[in-house]
Design brief:
Elements: E1 4-7, E2 10-13, E3 18-24, E4 33-39, E5 46-51, E6 58-60, E7 68-73, E8 78-83, E9 92-99, E10 114-115, E11 119-124
Parallel strand pairs: 2-11
Antiparallel strand pairs: 1-3, 3-8, 4-5, 4-9, 5-6, 7-8, 9-10, 9-11
């Protein structure tokens, strides 16, 4: 199985930045689409960003376009989420996820095979 471990969350003021990391176990990292999701209290888990395997294809939720950047370092089995110009509404637990299916939709949590335990991001006003 694949194990994912998120890190880099914390408390930041509005307008600040954080960089999340997701370290994946195993040696087949390049074979997976990697995604970031988030879930705020009382809300459903929502798509944030994804990147397709070793390609440069990236996808973003409208709410984070222009502020967040997803990237991956296949040699380190790690995917990153650079979050800039953070807003209070970005406050959530952020989850890293991986899926092996290239043809499934990146936007839906049920398409992903593996999940990390999440890292808390809190943005104060």
């Amino acid at each position: 199985q694949v194990q994912l471990v998120e890190s880099g969350g914390g408390l930041v003021q509005a307008g600040g930045s954080l960089r999340l990391s997701c370290a994946a176990s195993g040696r087949t990292f390049t074979g997976y689409t990697m995604g970031w999701f988030r879930q705020a209290p009382g809300k459903e888990r929502e798509f944030v960003a994804s990147t397709r395997r070793s390609t440069s294809s990236t996808y973003y939720a409208d709410s984070v376009k222009g502020r967040f950047t997803i990237s991956r370092d296949n040699a380190k089995n790690t995917v990153y989420l650079q979050m800039n110009t953070l807003k209070p509404e970005d406050t959530a637990v952020y989850y890293c996820a991986a899926k092996s299916s290239y043809y499934s939709d990146d936007y839906y949590p049920n398409e992903y095979d593996y999940w990390g335990q999440g890292t808390q991001v809190t943005v104060s006003s």
